[in-house]
Amino acid sequence: MFIVTLIAAPDTRNLDGALVESLRNAWGGGDVVWLAVDEAAEFAMPAAPDNQWDVWADLQRACVDLVVQPAEGRRKKMLLADMDSTMIRQECIDELAAEAGVGARVADITARAMNGELDFEAALIERVGLLKGLPENIISKVIANRITYMPGGHALVSTMKAQGAYAALVSGGFRAFTARVAAALGFDENRANTLLAADGKLTGDVGRPILGKAAKVQALEEITARLGLTEADVLAVGDGANDLGMLGRAGTGVALHAKPTVQAECNIRINHGDLTALLYLQGYTRDDIVT
Q: What's the start-to-end Cα distance of the chain, in Å?
């Protein structure tokens, strides 16, 4: 069996019941279950539809996300999440660069790297080099004044953990940020790169080895092995090219507001919902969500 889930943006809550019923009838699905009124609904069907992506494109124009996935095993035991532009709205290195007066240059490199146009490690080294000489305490200032959380993140982590899941934050960004974000959102552990500093200033270099695409897959392998889980037990979420490895290996890999090249390689794409969409994908209802 397959589950079809339709999700609207939580700020508009414009999921039309007639639209859901029309799709259910067209695809020969079972009874509609509303997970959140006017926001998320699902129905079961015996096979994946042939025209899934044509319908997906039509629904995107209506600002509705559509996901079709196997029913079996969709509720996961582990969350593996990227940080930048996933659990938080910003790219931390771009915010540091803005403080250094090189924001536009670094943001351009970041966008190209996340879209897979540049080698991740080389792009990171180049960008960090432009931060040389910044006072180390600028990190706390950026966290306090520039970093905001992606809506639904706390609910996602709290709800999955309340059901016994493990939550790991893995980032190609910096541990000075992931440690704070992980603590605020309730993650069990975090992994990221280390910005090097000396005499109270950033050196313009990053600790080795650099955590990139392969390291995120390594985190998936190591954590599941340690917890006695399988990769099928994992829900992974990210937005950039360096997330594709873990998104492809996890039982459920979600491209969240992702770059075009990332969306093209993922079957589950959330472009309008927030992080609570990842709960609806697992069959949680609005009443199940821990706030």
A: 31
Q: 3-state DSSP call for residue 125?
A: helix
pLDDT by position in tens, the chain (length 291): 999 999 999 888 899 999 999 999 999 999 999 999 999 999 999 999 999 999 999 999 999 999 999 999 999 999 999 999 999 999 999 999 998 889 999 999 999 988 889 889 999 999 999 999 999 999 999 999 999 999 999 999 999 999 999 999 999 999 999 999 999 999 999 999 999 999 999 999 999 999 989 999 999 999 999 999 999 999 999 999 999 999 999 999 999 999 889 999 999 999 999 999 999 999 999 999 998
Break the chain into its structural domains and give their ranges: 1-72, 76-291
> Catalytic one among 84, 94, 243, 274?
84
Q: How many CB atoms lie within 10 A of CB 181?
A: 24
**Helical axes 92-100 vs 103-114, angle rounded to 10°:** 160
pTM for the whole structure: 0.95
Q: Coil, strand, or helix at residue 6? A: strand
Instruction: Quickly count helices (H) and strands (E) in the chain.
Output: 12, 12
Exposure letters 89-117 (e unless 16+ CB within 10 A, then b): ebbbbbbbbbbbebeeebbebbeebbebe
Active site annotation includes 119: no
Distance CA 92, CA 182 (A): 14
* 84 classed as catalytic: yes
- In 30-119, alpha helices (H): 52-61, 92-100, 103-114
User: Which of the residues 82, 233, 243, 274 is marked catalytic?
Assistant: 82
Q: How many CB atoms lie within 10 A of CB 217?
A: 22
CATH class, 76-291 region: alpha beta
Fold (topology level) of 1-72: Alpha-Beta Plaits (3.30.70)
